[in-house]
Amino acid sequence: MAPQKPSEPDWLTRGLEHVWLPYAQMKLAPLPAPVVATRGSQIMLADGRKLVDGVASWWTACHGYNHPHIAESLRKQLERMPHVMFGGLAHEPAYELAARLAKILPGNLDRVFYSESGSVAVEVAMKMAIQYRLNTGERGRSKILSFRGAYHGDTLATMAVCDPEEGMHSLFRGVLPEQIIADLPRDDESHAALRAVLERHGRELTAILVEPLVQGAGGMVFHSALVLQRLRKLADEFDLLLIFDEIFTGFGRTGGMFACASSGVLPDIITLSKALTGGTLPLAATVASSLVFDAFWSDRPEDALMHGPTFMGNPLACAAANASLDLFEREPRLEQATAIAKQLARELEPCRTLKGVRDVRVMGAIGVVELDSPAERGALMKAFIDRGVWIRPFGRIVYLTPALTIRPDELTTLTSAICDALA
């Protein structure tokens, strides 16, 4: 390990001997940037520098950091009850949140099952879809159809429905349960190819799983509402459930509150997490339609969904989520997302002319610069930090998913840093 520098706090070098970092070959990874405070769209480092956060801590801090309304809600809830088990007991924050989510989600998405992470929320959705068949007397329909370019999580079940060719999970080929992977029906040819897949495998499938409008961690790849409309029709034709993974797209990220509502396509199950608590505490939700829930409503105990995370419906996290929904009701978040989209489109466009840039694209509060080849991430991240911004590229993608509350001048700092560093 490199000798301690004056700017490195003791807790960082002492703890680094014991922490296992995410998505990193730790023998080669640079020292992580030590953070001592956050505020708004800024991250304060131990050496006194301030960084404008361009990714909102993996897209979670939709209202910026330390929003006073969320902080006050957490303080009040902490004094009353930080946690109580959800099995056999009830508390107001979770029940109030479930009712509010059911009200703002489209159609009959009105049964909320809580968990603590997005990956688990997707696993619960898959489990619901499989048991739906068992409860309705169908055997052999246990597979999930998902798509190339998809990312749905890092647990064993969710790795099996991610893109099998991308590097993050390819080591586990042969270990994971085999699912059905196809291309999104973006045009007539791929639509026909998907239909052929369904004709071959329809009787072993229970559901279609898709990230609506944006395939996030798989490359920030956009598709149109027409793709989702085609999937809804195919799901109905082949008697499949349709699951929307809105862990990335939910809560204003694509410009509307939810991608399903923006596209006019109603899924049977939706998964939510990340921005659900405004970036403060872990919480996820798998929300099922009445069609799905009714298959579990019976006089037979074996028809129950036998799942229950220990911290399911955590009162603190639910209080934060209720406070976050308050802010969506009181403050102009979707209008802010629209303004961010316009500014991103305008200020990232000059990158299109730079050598090595393949594409520039924007949807809602998502801005993407795609390169011809993967960047050397460590060097590029250092270049961004030197320019006073926190941006974490992956593969060929340099992207911005800022807080919806980011100031225009802060956003310009981010876009200018990208254009400058890539140039």
**Distance between the amino and carboxyl termini:** 32 Å
Examine the coordinates and then state which fold CATH places here, giving the name of the CATH topology of the largest domain: Aspartate Aminotransferase, domain 2
Could you state the CATH homologous superfamily of the largest domain?
Type I PLP-dependent aspartate aminotransferase-like (Major domain)
Summarize model confidence as the mean pLDDT: 96
Q: Return the CATH architecture of the largest domain.
A: 3-Layer(aba) Sandwich
State the helicity in percent bands. Answer: 25-40%
Structure commentary:
- This protein has 423 residues and is α/β, with parallel strands linked by helices.
- It folds into two domains: 33-63 and 332-422, Aspartate Aminotransferase, domain 1 (Alpha-Beta Complex), CATH 3.90.1150.10; 68-330, 3-Layer(aba) Sandwich (Aspartate Aminotransferase, domain 2), CATH 3.40.640.10.
- Helix content is 36%, strand content 17%.
- It has 14 helices and 16 strands.
- The chain has helices at residues 10-15, 56-59, 68-80, 92-104, 118-135, 156-159, 188-201, 225-237, 259-263, 290-294, 315-330, 333-348, 377-386, 408-422; strands at residues 35-39, 42-45, 50-53, 109-115, 143-147, 180-182, 205-210, 214-215, 221-222, 241-245, 269-272, 284-289, 357-363, 366-371, 389-390, 397-400.
- A seven-stranded mixed β-sheet has the order 4-12-11-10-7-5-6, sandwiched between helices.
- Strand 8 (214-215) and strand 9 form a beta hairpin.
- Helix 3 (68-80) runs antiparallel to helix 11 (315-330) and helix 4 (92-104) runs parallel beside helix 11.
- The radius of gyration is 22 Å and the shape is globular.
- The model is unreliable at 1-6 (pLDDT under 50).
